[in-house]
Each structure stands twice: as structure tokens, then as C-alpha cells.
Amino acid sequence: MSPRAGQAGHPARTLAFVESPVQLLNVLEWAHLHGLHDPGPSGPAEPGVLSGPGGAGPDTASGPAPALPTQPGPAHIGPAHADPAPAVPAQGRRLPAGAVSGGAELTVVVLSPTDPMTRGQLRRMADLARDEGYRVRWEEARGGTTAPFHTIGGLAGSLRRADRIVMGDPFSRYVQLLLTITRARDLVVVDDGTATMEFVAQLARGERLVRWHRKGGRPGARDLLFAPVSSSARRRLTPSDSRRVEVFSSMPVTEVPDGVTVTANDFAWTRARFGPPRITQSADLVGTSLVETGVVDGDRYLEAVRNLAKAHGATRYFAHRRESAEKLHRLAVETGLEIVRPDLPLELIARRGPIGRTILSFPSTVVHTLPLALAGTGVRVAVCDIDPTWLTDTASPRAQGFLSGVTGTARDVHRLAAVSPA
What we know:
about 425 residues, six-stranded parallel β-sheet, 12 helices
């Protein structure tokens, strides 16, 4: 899809909506591929906007920013660091290859969540986006009962003027609601992890948009109330003569809906911007939030981590941003692993290093993304299957099949059998 999709006489105006650090990372990858850039000064800055490299705004940390360490932030147990987080130091403006004056414009809108760990990573990613020359608008979208009304009201004008909408989570009710306002002819879905695989498959089959770990359950009252908006969003995400839809993904996409353009994400921006990393001789283990989402039993998960670490000599455990402090504390005490809470998405952490020669993971997004981000480094990514006996009684009937599909479709990874009790 050409970045010059705007009307004649003005550059294509692109709004990207993100709610997680991974989504923002993949917006940067997509913008790098398409050669987008910052629109530059255009009058007074909007509220909540970080206007460009070095630009001040309500989300810019005061005082000089500390140097960004060459390895992940300090390992610790318990609540995440206080929010707001210190900013990533400015690197100087870096226009993506192919960006030209008068080309497509990009403004990133962060629909901020409430989770402190996610907010901290998002602030650091927002600083990286600003350093790349893009505008960042931070919205406290969940900061109280009136916050959604203020956010949507403040974005309505920009939504109507936008030529292209980029979104990281088409399942998000917030994003689905915003889609009812826009008149954009181009819609782009960038990776939000393994959920992208399910989104494309549901769109191809004409099904309602439901996250994979909730599929199979009965819709709740809020689902029924929101159903008309969700149906409208699905229609808008279906290509037509007047609307183009692109999926930008590093995930395997097997069921491609008619008219949808699928563009491969090979993490070219990440590889150009960071690394190569220093590689250690030990193994690192990547955590998952499958316990927090109710898919995997907590005791079985702890046992699996202990056995996996022992079998492969893992010393560090990179926590998922949604893992609870209580679970991580228990993991540290009972396994002896060093718990690391990364300050950026793992693809960037691994690319910066130091990183283990072997990275162990359960079925998750990283078994698809890390081999791409670490291409040519010699790091081996190994994935351990989820044993059916680990699943909770309340797990979706589709959980085992979906997780097996995540593992089975991963490229350039070593597949491990599910670990057994010692």
C-alpha cells in the first residue's frame, strides 16, 4: 500500500492508535517500511502532544533524562517502577529511508492503559517514536469515568480528517468505537502478537471479533450491549471498493480475507536501530501471562518453569508485563531464577543485549518475532509446548489447539516437548 494515500493537494494524514508497547513497536516497523515521517510544525500543538524530537509536553519527564542502559532494567520483585517512567534519551531525528518532504504524515495516539508496567514501557516506546521524528499524542483514555468522553471528543476532528487509520488491536472496544467516527479509506492492522492470527481468521470467516482465550464462552451483558459497535467495526475492517485494508504482521497468516493486503514485518527497523547484541553462554527464559488470563494453572506453570530452567540451565526469567508480582515473587523463591522486568518490548531488549545463547519460551508472540529480530546473531529460540493437563477448567475449548498452532507455525525455532515433573 502506498504511503501517499491522501487526497490530491495534501499529504496522507495517518493516525495510529496503540494500547501496548508491542503495538507501538510494530507501528514503528510499519512506518519504517513505508517511509512515513513527522508532519513538522503546523500551528499550536494539540493538548497531550509530544510534537517531535526534544518537544516538550505533559508526558515528557522533567530534567535531564538518564542514560539508557545497555541491558534490561534492574531485576526486582514486586510492583513495577513508579509511573511516570524516565524518558529514553533523545537520539536525534532519524528519518526512515525513503521519507521525503511533503510525504505521508504520522501521528501516534497512545490510548494509555492503567497497568503501571505497561505504561512504563509505553512511555519509553513513545520517546523512541519521538526520536524517529513522529508526533506522539498521549491520551489518559482510562483515567476515570469521564475520560473516554474527553478522549473521543478530543480525537473526533483528527479522526474525520485522517486518510489512514493504523491500529494495533482490532479487538479493542476503544478502537472499535473510534472506527465508527473515521472516514478514512485506508485501514491498517499491525501486529498485537498472536491475536493477529485469530483476527485475520475471524475476518476471513465473517465471524464476530472475539479474543481467542474468550471464544467459546457465552457473551456477557457488556458484550451484548457493545455488539452493534463491534459489528460496525468488523464491516469497516472488511475491504470494499471504497476502503483498503492492510495487515502488517510477522505472524503466519493462512486464511487471508478477499481484498486484504498482507505485508510481512521482518523487524528491519529494530535490526537497523539496535545491536548486534553481546551473547552470553547461558539460557534465558521468557515468561507468559497465560496464568493471568485464566488459561494455565498457576501451580502447573511454576512446576514447568522450574523443570525447564533446570533442564536447560536458564538463569534469567524475562517477565511478561502482565504477570502478577505475587506470581513472580513465588517463581524467584522456588526456582532461583533472576526475575527481570524489561523496560522495553523483548525484541528490543534482546537486540540490545546481553542475551542468552538460547532463549526458552512457551507458545507466545516471541517465538515468531525473536528469530526475526535476532537474525544472523546465532541465538537459538526454543519453544516448549503447553501440556493439556496444565489448562484450567475454565480455559476456552479452543485454547489447546490455538497454542499448538502458535508453536507449530513458528519458523526458525527449536521445538521442545512439554516438560515433565522431575
